[in-house]
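About this split. The held-out portion is used to measure sequence recovery: a designer receives only the structure tokens and must propose an amino acid at every position. Recovery is the fraction of positions where the proposal matches the reference. Here is one held-out target exactly as it appears in the evaluation file.
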């Protein structure tokens, strides 16, 4: 079991969040590739220079009769490419499916040495992580792998959300977690057919003041879950992510949803379409004006203590730490 992080640890230089034992790397977008489609596999060599993480998807969106082809395609794409600083992940099938055992038994011996993270869908509790943890341990030992493969859970069932803190601390292999709004909506019985994003009917009205046509303010359907996930992840020293945004025709709404998640503490989101790569890159890198202001705070308080006024705003030890989060991320982006 991972021991809980100390109450406050200064961030390592370059670390975007206090993720103590995890590799420090940018993971602003986890780009999904359907590995059974040869045309898509052929694009991976170029993608490696554009994205922070390439993920071969074996689960939902891969038809049942293409599961074997997707698994073999992933092995091929892992073998055929050099990934450098780009992360290589796979989303395996869920634990109660007929495919998951073969996913792991074939992928780990073949390309486990190149694989950074296994994304596990529909995680309901720590027992799912324990099972995968042991299975990976057996397969790694058999393949004489020296670097542990990490686990990333998708938070996409009501039961999973209920157990989110136990999932976050279930294994030292835990890399992080992504919100899965589509499955979560179904699991909760939410009345939407969208993949992430808002809904025009989830709104509050401005005060009436005798005005019958008053403004409706749309709310963020995912606020509660993202907040709960961020707290569970950060208190366990692992990384939180927003998941997919399914309406490719509405880049502005995608950007707004990603930005909410970024401001709430998430480090990245999934990109399911090439246009979402740049959106995620823009959103999950800090704004230059924020970086400039953060630098002013750190310059004004070199040892991180005391209180100063900058542009009329009070700064103290706490805002110094906020500034440090932004500057550390900016440094990582610039590296
Ligand atoms: C992702 O897997 C989702 O269900 O939203
Ligand atoms: Mg899902």
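Reference sequence for scoring:
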């Amino acid at each position: 079991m991972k021991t809980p992080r100390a109450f406050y640890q200064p961030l390592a230089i370059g670390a975007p969040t206090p993720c103590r034992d995890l590799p420090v790397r940018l993971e602003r977008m986890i780009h999904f590739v359907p590995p059974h489609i040869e045309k898509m596999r052929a694009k991976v060599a170029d993608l490696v220079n554009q994205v922070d993480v390439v993920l071969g998807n074996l689960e939902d969106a891969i038809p049942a009769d293409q599961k074997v082809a997707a698994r073999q395609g992933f092995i091929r794409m892992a073998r055929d490419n050099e990934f450098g600083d780009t992360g290589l992940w796979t989303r395996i099938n869920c634990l109660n499916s007929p495919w998951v055992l073969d996913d792991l038994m074939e992928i780990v011996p073949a390309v486990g040495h190149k694989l950074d993270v296994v994304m596990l869908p529909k995680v309901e509790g720590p027992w799912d992580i324990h099972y995968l943890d042991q299975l990976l341990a057996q397969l790694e030992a058999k393949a004489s792998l020296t670097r542990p493969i990490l686990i990333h859970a998708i938070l996409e069932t009501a039961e999973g959300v209920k157990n989110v803190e136990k999932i976050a601390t279930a294994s030292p292999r835990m890399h992080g977690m992504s919100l899965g709004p589509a499955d979560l909506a179904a699991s909760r019985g939410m009345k939407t057919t969208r993949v992430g994003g808002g809904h025009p009917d989830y709104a509050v009205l401005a005060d009436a003041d005798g005005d019958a046509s008053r403004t409706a303010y749309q709310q963020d359907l995912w606020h509660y879950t993202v907040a709960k996930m961020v707290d569970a992840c950060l208190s366990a020293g692992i990384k939180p992510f927003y998941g997919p945004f399914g309406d490719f025709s509405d880049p502005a709404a995608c950007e707004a949803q990603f930005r909410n998640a970024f401001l709430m503490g998430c480090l990245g989101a999934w990109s399911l379409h090439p246009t979402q790569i740049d959106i995620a890159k823009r959103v999950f890198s800090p704004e230059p004006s924020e970086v400039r202001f953060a630098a002013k705070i750190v310059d004004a308080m070199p040892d991180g203590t005391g209180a100063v006024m900058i542009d009329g705003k009070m700064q103290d030890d706490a805002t110094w730490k906020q500034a440090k989060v932004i500057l550390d991320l900016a440094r990582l982006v610039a590296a």
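Annotator remark: The first strand starts at residue 29 and ends at 33.
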